[in-house]
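Hello again,

I reread your note about wanting to compare the complex against the isolated chains. To keep things tidy I'm splitting this into two emails, and this first one only covers the full assembly. Below are the input lines as submitted, including protein chains and any nucleic acid or small-molecule components. They are followed by the predicted structure of everything together. The single-chain runs will come separately.
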Amino acid sequence: MAINSFAGKRYLVVDDFADMRATVRSMLHSLGIPAVDQARDGAGAIALIEETRYDVVLCDYNLGRGKDGQQVLEEARQRKLLGIDSIFIMITADNTREMVMAAVEYEPDNYLSKPFTKDLLRTRLLRLIERKADLAPVNAALHGGDQGRAIELLDGLIAARPRNLADLLKLKAEICITAGRYDAAAAIYAEALAARDVAWAQFGRGKLLFLTKAYAQAAEVFQALIERNKELVSAYDWLARAQLALNLPAVAEKTLVAAAELSPRAVQRQQLLGDLALNNGNAPLAESAFGRAVQLGKFSVFNHPSLYAGLAKSKTANNKHDEALQAVAELSRTFANDPAAIFYEATATAAIRHNQGDSAGAAAATRQAERAMRVAGGQHAARMGVELARTLSQVGEKQQAAALLQSLVANNHDDEACLIEIARAYRDAGLDETPDAVITRIRRGVVDTNNRGVQLIRDGQLDAAIDLLQQAAAQVPGNRTVNLNAAKALLIRMERHGTAEDSLRQLRQYLDRVRQVAPGDQRLTTLQAQVQRLVLKSM
Amino acid sequence: MKFADILAQSIHDIKNSLGMILNNIDVLLADAPECIHDHQAARLLQHEAKRANNNLVQLLSLYKLDVQRLSVHIAEHSLAEFCEEIVAEHQAMCKALGVRLDIACDDYLVGYFDLDLVRGVVGSILGNAQRYAKTTVRLSADQLDAYLVIRVEDDGAGYPAGVMDLAETEQLGVEHGFSSGRTHLGLYFARQVARLHTSGERQGRVSLRNGRDLPGGCFELWLP
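Full-complex prediction:
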């Protein structure tokens, strides 16, 4: 590749030491890169990344006080400030290597350990630039929420069999999974595995098995990956999820303990471990995991009121009620004005009051949690619902807990990750009916109604379909599939018989509901585009 | 504070200073070649400074191993990319020494190892090989009996018998080295790094021989 591969790109160097910034800058300079931006800490880096679309970020892991390099990466990727076409290189010192490895969600494109030479930097950069070549349009499509277009663009690139073919296939498979095109993703992994047994394709296969509810097989795949590479921490995370889905919470806890030992600095991993340990009755472990999560969360984009609530609940379970109340106080200080904070404050307080024997206080806090959930709900309605159900069950309101969990099933009947959580809460609450029976019963009801509606649409009986689906959507307002189908029936009727003001208003209301609970749903994006076309045509 | 700790701290500082010197030579050679009259001499200077730097890095790793603070991070790596990086780092020096640097590696070969430690091992062995080679050094990687084998060969005079024995023993070879002016730290380090790579019952190892594909020395790092 010619030297000018480096040209025409924006570079950012982040390091708290001026010497190191100067060294990296002079290396880049000698590669023919004239302009390099610099930041001295994580907050400064984020501020620059918000302003400028960088192609290459070279970031030291250690940035003194405030965010570390991993937290800069997580925030930039989570907030979509850096796209899939940009390169993030983490610079590490030998004493930080174990700290940086294997985050839960976002990994840098590469690590460079200090000291490194100009030659090494050049070779690495060239390779990464080659890997990310031509991905800018794909990133733009993803950014606009158009996964179908992103896949088309990738197919165009893949057809030319470029040198970064494996990277493109891997990326395409991941986008297919997010878009719900499991068959296409499975085909990519199978083809790669037929050629040779590569870890990325095994990993993808494991994820797909999990997503298609083949939990035992998924666990086997991740276990095999771990046997091959003991340090592949993300495989432990997925193994634990599969074990949870298989209703083996104690085993999942052990798996996560192993993962957290290898890589203790991920907020989400500590949170999941704390949550598992708390519900498994291992309060001391829960307290240490949530303690770490709160500590690590301070400068992290994954900071959340639920971390503090988890810490408070673990502390009160360990009979440290005063410390638990302090954690609640810290929660409200940290997240002032956040509606979710009021909710989590209330559930944590209910647990503390209950453990202190103050049943009136516990009930009052529970009522407050119920009110706060109605305000904060939205995208996290299901997660909050499970938390509230656990609180209800803890303060002794078992029937209310059961009713809430059943309505959560009806509203999320096709969200497997959510159903696993609901089932676990149901089981932990010690209710009469088994969670599997409840889920099967409720799901069958929702699916039947929904399918009847879809059949009526197909038969052209649009008025009957709309009546049925409207009624269903009123019963399960949080259910995305029912809302989407109700919207679809309204759309088709308007396409055939002309737009009507009130139908349009109602259709938009259904779409709004879905946007609230699942803004990334591909069916939503498709429907929105169709509605737009309809409105334009009728103008 | 123990003497070993003081030593380690000093080595750390010297290593950083050397790193700065190396970067400056790099920048001088690239940006202001007209300031340097004898490029050959500058390259050799760079080569020696790099060797010293590598030695210090290895010493520090061995110190950390000794006080159990060395963390080994084994991950999947492409061997083609690994070789490409090694070559990029040594190409200029080989040119200056008038030695050709070959690589032979399947594009799809992957292995599980600690990238930095193994690069340190192979880099330092290759740094020696290019001094002993007459015309050619070859870096290659293969899969053999479920081991990954990374090989450095040259067409020089080959390893003397005393050194070949060293690969099999636990000795650092200091006594042998003091008289000959060489300590074989690179080999000792290679053996330690090999042993840190385990998979089930199997453990990494180092093997030395002469006259495999090229007539000179052949170093092999076997990783499970």
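For quick reference: The beta strands of chain A are 11-14, 36-39, 56-60, 87-92, 110-113.

B.
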